[in-house]
Design a protein that fits this description.
alpha+beta
Length: about 775
């Protein structure tokens, strides 16, 4: 036995069987005087009887010289063979020294819980904080095993394993836990330090621990982590409903057992905020979530509206623009919960937190968090956290609302500018698709057009304005109108792009702040069904794809040229002759471009998809989009497919006219014969007049050679070409003028007329409607 300790061993009968030198110094009794005596004989006063030979805690011993010795006893049960009680080990220390030393006072008054255990995990000493945690005085715990002082739970058994590990290995241990204290119900975060206690020889004779309550720090870290998570997960899309669902996912289960998000109807649409009504609040449920099956369930289904009475917490939160706490037992709260008629019993909801969703001074809706399973009610720090989360979510919801509104406006504007119905013409069969971008950047400026030209020709246009949103859509409208105007002049593709490039340059000079938005790519093509020739010019636009009637496909080699607005570089047109039934695909870069995709491979995929047999151009459109379109397109997509047609020899007739005024009658007679052969005698008289006037003007004011051509398509087209580049124009003839009425007569007799420049001069044309069958 350690002679430095005041200790004695007592058998099961209470007889002293062992005596230390420390016990001799404390009591003055020699070992031979104490061993064999009843231990109670050492007391200076009677002690209450019990199972233990002496009581634990403060007692008064009788010194050998008769004076009283205040001491503090600690009893440790001893076991014999088979686990039978064999007595006790009793240690004693002077009461005055234990209570008056600075170290003892520091231990007892420490702000953290501190305890000392023997090697069997029995209490030897506890300070005041540890006693408060255990909910029992130190005298009740000294000598008792740790597991006997706590409930049978996994965290208690884990704590006991750590204590045993420290005394068995002699190594200190540090760990953190989040459990409730034995005397309380609220979980706490603990930083626990355990270390072995050694005697003078270095042998482990016990263990000690210090437990620091870090609940506030833990909650602060949790709140910060939750805010960081919210910043990363709320607002990942510009979708109002998805943003509300992300807020609910953050609240449940970290903050609430059940949470809802209700919004005003105007938030989900494109309207401005209306005047708020005075009585009640009507909101639409857009998201809710529950932590577990036994948590409260929704009384309102997703998409349904709900009316919140003025006294309810959500209505108060909206009215007062602040978080509102409500608890079970409050009259208004209990009545409102009972009126909800939720599937879960109303009494289970013990705490509620309603937070308004406000952004940029506007209230968008309300988020409600409910606790029923979680034992703690909401407090002010919970309200502050919820307000921060709601504020972040509200900004994201408002951004999504504004994006949806701008997207709707841009989409409406764009649809109003794109062709709604393609005009009837015989040159090509057309199918098209326009897919607006769903990315956060907004609607782009992609567009297309099919423009009928003189002589049964058709212009095919595809363009893409740089940027997104309403500015790009407005620019697209400008360019679309400009192309139609230039097409009406019947300019060749390369000349048209040159004029369009000048227009974009001027627009950029006028709108210096929006120069980036005014850049554009464009492809302009003209197809002539009479010659079956396609002329294509591009300004920074992807080359079209061609599928021949035999099924072979390839990209058309086109000199792309610079994008519109760059200026200083020429545009070149590419011409090729196409067999009847060829399919040409015009598209914007959104169809084949993607950040994770090789553009050459995508172009090959497009050619392969176009070569797949299809019942119609419409089906081919759908097939191409299915096979080629990126999984998540980041830009608008336009696809325009045309199948070429050709006018047969029986639909087009041509006559060379010698530059002699006497040939006008012959040309008129020839035209009458052609119309008779076509069965168009009803319009022969008007046609002969038109031919007479146009041929006369060409001979009189033009230059040879002169050629007359009649085309029977959906209309009857009369064309007269000559080598002069001077274009005719209407003028009003005076009463006594001998001429000047020819073109006026042509304009009155036909449904439309015009002229176009050609490589060899000009062509004047006029169209007449065919007689109804």
């Amino acid at each position: 036995m350690d002679d430095a300790s005041a200790a004695m061993v007592v058998d099961a009968r209470g007889i002293v069987t062992g005596w230390s030198e420390g016990a001799r110094r404390l009591t003055g009794h020699l070992a031979e005087e104490a061993v064999g005596r009843a231990v109670r004989a050492l007391l200076a006063e009677d002690a209450p009887s019990g199972t233990a030979p002496l009581p634990s805690g403060p007692v008064t011993l009788r010194h050998r010289d008769g004076r009283p010795v205040p001491a503090r006893l600690t009893l440790r049960p001893l076991q014999g063979a088979g686990g039978t009680p064999a007595g006790h080990l009793i240690t004693a220390e002077p009461s005055g020294a234990a209570e008056t030393s600075l170290a003892a006072r520091a231990f007892q008054q420490a702000s953290m819980a501190m305890s000392v255990f023997d090697t069997e995990q029995r209490y030897l000493r506890l300070n005041d904080v540890a006693c408060r945690m255990m909910g029992r005085p130190e005298t009740d715990l000294i000598g008792s095993p740790y597991l006997d002082s706590v409930e049978s739970a996994e965290y208690s058994r884990g704590f006991h394993r750590h204590l045993r590990q420290v005394t068995e290995t002699g190594e200190p241990l540090h760990y953190q836990s989040f459990t409730r204290e034995p005397s309380g119900t609220r979980p706490h975060a603990w930083n626990i330090e355990m270390w072995p206690v050694r005697d003078s020889s270095g042998e482990v004779v016990g263990g000690a621990l210090a437990a620091f309550d870090s609940t506030e720090q833990h909650r602060a870290r949790r709140r910060l982590a939750l805010l960081n998570e919210a910043a990363a997960t709320i607002g990942t899309t510009l979708d109002v409903v998805r943003t509300a669902e992300e807020l609910v996912a953050i609240l449940v289960p970290a903050v609430a057992d059940f949470a809802t998000v209700d919004l005003h109807d105007w938030v989900l649409g494109a309207d401005e905020p209306p005047v708020r009504p005075d009585t009640g609040v009507v909101l639409r449920r857009v998201a809710h979530g529950s932590a577990a099956e036994d948590a409260p369930q929704a009384a309102v289904r997703l998409g349904q509206t709900d009316v919140y009475p003025p006294c309810s917490p959500p209505a108060r939160a909206l009215r007062e623009c602040r978080a509102v706490l409500a608890r079970a037992g409050e009259p208004h709260f209990d009545r409102w919960i009972a009126e909800r008629g939720a599937p879960a019993p109303a009494g289970r909801v013990h705490s509620l937190l309603a937070v308004p969703l406000r952004a940029r001074g506007t209230t968008l809706g309300v988020a409600v968090a409910v606790r029923s399973i979680h034992p703690e009610g909401y407090a002010d720090d919970d309200a502050a956290l919820a307000e921060e989360l709601a504020s972040r979510a509200a900004v994201c919801v408002d951004n999504a609302r504004r994006f949806a509104r701008e997207r709707t406006t841009a989409l409406t504007l764009q649809h109003s500018l794109l062709p709604k119905g393609l005009p009837g013409q015989a040159a090509v069969e057309v199918a098209h698709r326009y897919l607006p971008s769903a990315s956060a950047a907004g609607i782009g400026g992609d567009w297309f057009d099919v423009i009928p030209l003189a002589g049964s020709r058709v212009a095919l246009v595809v363009g893409d304005v740089v940027g997104h949103g309403i500015p790009s859509t407005a620019t697209m409208g400008r360019l679309c109108t400009a192309v139609r105007t230039l097409a009406d002049v019947d300019l060749p593709p390369d000349e048209l792009l040159t004029h369009l490039d000048d227009l974009v340059t001027h627009l950029a000079a006028d709108d210096r702040e929006d120069v980036a938005e005014l850049g554009s790519t464009c492809l302009y093509a003209v197809y002539d069904p009479v010659t079956r020739r396609l002329a294509v010019a591009a300004a920074g636009h992807p080359a079209p794809a061609l599928v021949l009637p035999d099924g072979t496909s390839r990209l058309i080699r086109v000199n792309a040229g610079p994008p519109l607005g760059v200026g200083g570089l020429p545009f070149e047109a590419t011409e090729l002759q196409l067999p009847e039934g060829s399919v040409v695909a015009f598209y914007t870069d959104g169809l084949i471009e993607d950040r994770d995709r090789d553009i050459d491979r995508a172009a090959d995929e497009l050619c392969r998809a176009l070569a797949v047999p299809a019942d119609s151009l419409e089906s081919l459109c759908d097939g191409v989009l299915k096979d080629v379109l990126p999984q998540a397109p980041g830009d608008d997509v336009v696809l325009l497919l045309v199948r070429t047609r050709a006018l047969g020899a029986d639909q087009v007739v041509t006559r060379d006219v010698p530059p002699d005024p006497e040939e006008v009658a012959a040309a008129r007679q020839w035209a009458g014969e052609r119309l008779a052969a076509w069965g168009l005698d009803e319009i022969a008289f008007v046609t002969e007049l038109v031919v007479s006037e146009l041929v006369t003007n060409a001979i009189r004011y033009g230059a040879p050679p002169v050629q007359l051509r009649l085309i029977r398509d959906r209309t009857l087209i009369c064309e007269v070409a000559d080598a002069s580049s001077t274009s005719p124009h209407l003028r009003r003839a005076h009463a006594y003028d001998e001429g000047g009425r020819g073109l006026l007569l042509v304009a009155q007799l036909t449904q439309r007329w015009g002229s176009r420049q050609t490589d060899g001069g000009k062509t004047i044309w006029a169209e007449q409607p065919l007689p109804q069958p």
